Protein 1
Amino acid sequence: MLKKNSVKLIKYYNFINHNLIFNNKAINRYRKENFEISEDKSKNLEALKKSIMIQKNCDLKKQAKNIVFSDGNPKSKIMLIGEAPGANEDQEGVPFVGRAGALLDKMLTSIELDRKKVYISNIVNFRPPENRRPTEKEINRYLPFITKHIEIIEPKILVLLGSTAMNALIGNHTVISKMRGKWIEKKFGNFKTSVIITFHPAFLMRQPAQKKMAWIDLKMIRDKKAYLKI
Ligand code: URA
């Protein structure tokens, strides 16, 4: 028989969603679905991954356990781009499998999306040591790869998660609080797409009050998806 205090404590933990807050264990979301993309797209993705893997003199690559290339559905018309892999992602070779990933999944679910319906990558494909932000030099090194990645996937909606992704792909001239929640038409190589910037889930875990702004952005993505009949 549980004591009254223990029952209260369990209720409290459920209320504050303690798994999300305290559970550090990686969630294995690696899926082997065959999304049946065209041979061309598949070859292009493989070639891109290979060109990232055979880079010379990249300290990030030297120190990482695994390349973190992408997750989700390469056929999707919705692509999300984060910052860089963390420890869990490095371990599994899959983006957003740690705590930020759990929140990202919740955000996707709130607008009836999931990893089978979107495609996810990062600005850099190897974990920066100590989970630090990638430096400008590192970002510049990886910029051609993520640009190519976007060109191959050809998303109709591109969601940039956080200021690193925003600065890398849109520019350094502005701050995320001013740029989030707006649609921007942007060309990557010859490919033009609609971009929206929103807060990174890791930032939202530190600043939960900003979740209400992220919810506005998520609803914009939901509406755009409906408008574009994706
Ligand atoms: N944060 C990111 O930006 N990317 C990941 O893959 C995980 C955490």
Protein 2
Amino acid sequence: MDLELKGKVAAITGGSEGIGLAVAEALAREGVHIALCARNGERTAAEAERIARQYGVTALGMHVDVTKPEDIADFVSQIENTFGGADILINNAGTGTNETILDAPDDRWQYYWDLHVMAAVRLSRSLAPMMKQRGGGVILNNASICATQPMGHEPIYNTTKAALVMFSKCLANELIPFNIRVNAINPGLIMTAGWTVHAEKITEGTGRTAMDFLSDVAKEHAPIARFATAEELANFFIFLCSPKASYCVGSSYYVDGGWLKVVT
Ligand code: NDP
């Protein structure tokens, strides 16, 4: 299927590894020019260079901490200077948490609010006017199944991802008159460094391997009984970016191997 994405420009936060990088590669394979950002600027620039070489697109990789408004402003300026705007925005940067509500101080809540919600607000506010001028666009917010079905150890993650899903819905209503389609994606278990590092820590010195631990996690939670690769999830992202998904607006799509326990 021709996804009709060739020549578009996509901005992707948290693009140095994991899901963000897989989405960047999948888009670049379709001929999309790429602007990546993450806090590790060197790694992000190196991935951008590799993508440019491998797929023959223009790719920018920058140091940006998306919790900082001034870093977001720099990212947007670079996108404007390099590409004259963007057609696609993937708000992906984020990470799990571990706390109890009674113990977590305000600054912890604030950090993840900035990371999971305000980064998407600020980037959408900056890039949507450019999308309007270009005749339309796509914004995808990478939330989580935990936005609906919370995990016990991470109340701040669950809460901020739920807020991101509601933000998506409100933004979708505001922007569809300008041909900008906004959606949220709620992934389940996706095999990325966050999971492998966590599994290595938990199994250290126990005689169990990290892979055994992850296999048990998958069997416990997902009827499909395995993790997805980041590439499997990226396939769904790029479909939603495509004009082929022209009637997909204001929804939350679960990509979770059957993990969600209710019908919504
Ligand atoms: P990874 O840890 O593999 O990648 C996270 C990316 O975000 C990295 O590029 C990281 O780079 C970047 N990042 C983190 N904090 C910031 C920040 N403050 N500013 C800019 N960039 C930042 O995670 P995943 O690929 O697994 O996760 C990506 C998204 O998908 C997250 O929002 C996560 O919540 C969501 N998700 C993941 C699931 C999974 O099972 N893996 C399931 C459901 C949702 P750097 O550290 O250099 O900043």
